[in-house]
C-alpha cells in the first residue's frame, strides 16, 4: 500500500469518536457556502493528499479533464497525508466538506460511519468488474461509498546480480526465505529488509505472512499469527534482517535495497521509478513467500478511494459523482496505473495491463486475492492494527516471545 506510507497521526478511532459526539447530524449537513440545489453548478471543490510530484500534477490534470467533461471547473486543495483526516473531521463539524473527497482506503469506513459520506449507489455509479477486494475497501454496511481507480500491494523484490552470484533462487516458502536471507547476509549486506516500525506501515508489511498463514486480525493471539511473528523474529534475531527494521519506513527499506545493503526487500510498486533510475540495478519481483508450498499468498490492498461527501446540495453532489465516475473510466484507470505504477481496479483491465507492463505482473496477480484491511473489522481496524504493530515491536526487541507479545497486545 502506498497508502500505508502515512505513518504519523493520532489513532483515527479516537478522532472519529470525538466527531460522533458532536451535536451535528452529519448525514444531513450542508456546506455553508453551497449554492441552492436549484442553481446551476459551475465549480466543485476537491480535496486529496497527492501533494508531491508526479502524482500532484497527474491527478490534477485528470481532475481537470473530468471536470471539463462534467461541465464544471475544479477548485482543488491538496494537503499532507498526515493532516488529511484531522482536516476532514474539522470540516465535517463546520459543515464545509468538499464536494469530492479522496481517502486512504482503510479510513473510509470510519468516516462513512459518521454519516459524512453518500453511498455511490445514490448516483448510479457503476461498480461492475471491480476486484472484490477493491469493493470491500470502499464498502460500509453493504453500501459502496468510495471507488479507487487504481490499487497497489506489496511483494518481494530481489537483486538479480546478488542472488545469481550467491547461487540463490528467489524463495517461495518461509524455510527458503530464511535460508536465502542467511546466505545473502555478509559484511554490511543483509539478506532481507522490511519495515517493522510502530505504525500502520509496520502492520501493513506484516500482513502478507500473517494472512497467508491463516492469521486473523479479529484475534491475533493464535498459532497462525504466532508462526508469522516467529518468522519475523527469527530473521532479525539471526542477523539476516537489520534491527533497524524496527524504525525503518518503506522508503528507508528502498534506500537499503538500492544501496546494495539488502539483497531482498518487502515493498510496493511505487518504488519502481526510483529503482529504474539506477540502471546498474537489476531486480525481479515475486510474491512474498508462504509458510509451506500450496498456501495462497494473500497481500493487503493499498490505494485511495474517491467519495462524495454529504454536503446537502444535491446538484453539487451529482456533479461530484460525475467526476468520480470519470476518474474510474477504463481510459483513466489504465493511464493512472501506467504513470503511477499501480494496478487498474477493474479485473478486465488488470489482465491487459499486466501483459503490457511485465514489471507489475506480480502485483497484478496479487491483487486478485488481496484483502482490504477493513474487510473484517470495518471501523475497528485501526485499533487492531495498533495491537499488531505493538506485538511486532515487543517480539522483535526481545521483550517477550512472539506468543506472549501477541497475547499481551490482544488483551490491551
From TrEMBL:
PROSITE patterns per UniProt: PROKAR_LIPOPROTEIN
InterPro entries in the cross-refs: SBP
Transmembrane segments: none
Family in the record: Belongs to the bacterial solute-binding protein 1 family.
Pfam families in alphabetical order: SBP_bac_8
Alphabetically ordered keywords of this record: Signal, Transport
Record-given protein name: Extracellular solute-binding protein
Span of the signal peptide: 1-28
Domain of life: Bacteria
